[in-house]
Design a protein that fits this description.
- The chain is an alpha+beta fold.
- A three-stranded mixed beta sheet has the order 10-3-11.
- It is globular.
Length: about 290
């Protein structure tokens, strides 16, 4: 019993603060891995299957956490699917930057084969957390770990996360998974450790086709603002699953969202290896 108590104590003291209340995940997982061997850390908790709103906490519990710091910034994303050719460099760089284990993903590129031979094409859709303004994961988190960080980024406080997995149940984009070692929620945090040092998120700086743009939407001269203005001259910009009314901060150009949206995980799901199953290369519509 004393070993278990010592392990729990170590976990509660791990990871310094970064960007408000969000501790460094890399440091946390190093300590969590040791504690898992010492004390047998539990796996991800089972979650009920309900409507998202049924899982929301009372407003007074999450209202303050839904408010971003008053830093004058509004971070957002623009994905130009017309330029994406499915190299998966964004996924690889994300995994390397954030120590994401095999079989789990913070971001993933989905694809769909369209047309009939000989006129065929493969459409791509890079996906990650949408950093919603009205984020359902923040509303549902029972331990108060999910909150708005700098620029409105939706981040996880790893000193508070209990691995309840309710956030997974309510995310309309399948963008959160539960780490099986730390028993905690993991998602895109806009690479705040890079952004704080005037660097782009790893995926954006790695993309060889310049399809991924990130920046301050309040700054008309930011890379993301300029890219969105230029794209609007040729095509409308769209968002995914607007009917969910989460006000996502990710916009897309091109046919990718229309053709590939059905492949993107929904509530209660997470990005996974099945996206690359060869039997999914060509899947007919159910209609």
């Amino acid at each position: 019993m004393s070993d278990q108590s010592d392990s729990d104590k170590d976990l509660s003291q791990t990871a310094g603060k970064n960007q408000g209340d969000a501790p460094n995940r890399r440091d946390f997982l190093e300590s969590a891995s040791v504690a898992a061997f010492a004390g047998g850390l539990a796996g991800a908790a089972d979650s009920p299957t309900q409507d998202s709103e049924d899982l929301f906490q009372p407003e007074e519990f999450w209202k303050d956490r839904m408010q971003a710091p008053d830093d004058g910034k509004r971070y957002g994303w623009f994905i130009d699917t017309r330029r994406c050719f499915g190299c998966h460099a964004c996924e690889v760089s994300c995994k390397a930057e954030n120590d994401v284990p095999l079989g789990s993903y913070i971001r993933q590129t989905f694809y769909q084969d369209v047309g009939e031979y000989p006129k065929v094409a493969r459409m791509f859709l890079p996906m990650a957390c949408q950093h919603c303004e009205d984020a359902p994961c923040v509303k549902a988190c029972p331990c108060g770990a999910l909150h708005k960080g700098g620029g409105g980024s939706v981040v996880v406080d790893y000193e508070k996360c209990c691995g309840h997995a309710t956030c997974v149940e309510v995310c309309p984009y399948g963008a959160i998974y539960i780490d099986s070692v730390a028993n905690q929620a993991v998602k895109c945090h806009n690479c705040y450790h890079r952004v704080e040092n005037d660097m782009e998120p790893a995926c954006a700086s790695t993309c060889p086709s310049d399809a991924i743009h990130f920046g301050d939407l309040n700054d008309p001269d930011s890379k993301v603002s300029v890219a969105m203005r230029e794209a609007k001259k040729a095509t409308p910009l769209v968002q995914l699953r607007g009917e969910k009314e989460t006000k996502p901060r990710m916009w897309f150009a091109g046919d990718g969202p229309t053709e590939v949206e059905s492949r993107v995980p929904r509530e209660g799901e997470s990005y996974n290896n099945d996206a690359y199953n060869i039997y999914n290369w060509k899947k007919e519509s159910d209609s």
